[in-house]
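Take just one protein record:
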Amino acid sequence: MDSLYDRLTVEQKELLSWKWLSKNSGAIELLEKNLNKVNWFWLSSNPEAIHILEENLDKVNWMGLSCNPKAIHLLEQNLDKVNWGWLSKNPAAIHLLEQNLNKVDWEFLSLNTAAIHILEANLDKVDWRLLSENTSAIHLLEANLDKVNWRLLSVNTLAIHLLEANLNKVDWDWLSANPRAIHILEANLDEVNWVYLSCNPEAIHILEDNLDEINLEGLSLNPNLFKREYLLK
């Protein structure tokens, strides 16, 4: 059974974005065969590329690496190279952040799914716009709906109940990228943004049925682009 990638024409494959493929956790095999084309900033942020990064430390971008949850051992050994802003959104770096709260970027920390206990103790420093995307912050968002950013909430995979109850506030562009919103999107295809839908890992079956609507740049981010078991035909 072919993957969606297998079904692309040679011309379409050439138009895929190496920048976004480098960030794609499902594209590792392709990236390993094309290291001369990768974007090292985004590859440095890719958790599934850690073995490539360990073998190419001279090419690593330390800002990108700072948000990589599988790179903690490298970051701990090179704290002088760490970017504390990007580290602040790294869920595997909580122990480092707790020890260096004066270096934390509170906007990025508001995105960190493992930092809820820190955020709850510092609600005055929380960035509610970015917190709206945080899947671990649903209880805070439910209690502060007046502070919610509905655009970013629209991509929050654990906020579906809030989005379904407030479809008039939903941002359909961002909702199109939400893997848990497929049932809403299927019922509202006229509202879908195909650029965002093209990167949605649970939308492969919709994309398969609408090949002319696919955005190749968005598709470059889709981790299920290379998976064969997702195609039903």
The chain has a mean pLDDT of 96.
